[in-house]
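New to this. Look over this protein:
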Amino acid sequence: LTFTANSFAQLTTSPGSASSLVQNTLLGPGVTVSNISFSGASGALGQFSSNTNLGISSGIVMTTGTIANNGDGPQGPNDQPSSGVDNNYPGYSRLSQLAGTTTFNASILEFDFVPYSDSVKFRYVFGSEEYPEYVGTQFNDVFAFYISGPGIPGGSQNIAQLPNGGG
């Protein structure tokens, strides 16, 4: 008998400051950035590299738990007492509005940028240890990607989209 299967490695993570991560990992050439700030637990922000099926080989990782690589990747809180790290940080009102319930352990990365061209592009992946088994329950994780500025309808817009185009 012979079995074949696709397998993927875990994320390799390391800590970093918000300023360094935005300037050196997130943004490429042709962008001026300022006013970089991070709100959340210090262990909830870092960078990653991967050989996984994420579709992105490196970037910034933010979590409601910890980026510490404990043998099985970053970990966040879950509905089980020993399944993750609870940072005891507050949530975020805009995410609570989206979720329709109080949020906890928010990680918020904010910065201003000016591109030297007429368009910008961000690639991102949202992952949750609570998806799909807890969708529609009190344990739902929430993600938003807000962009604001001139030409943005309403002045601010959540540009996070599901694969089917839903928000």
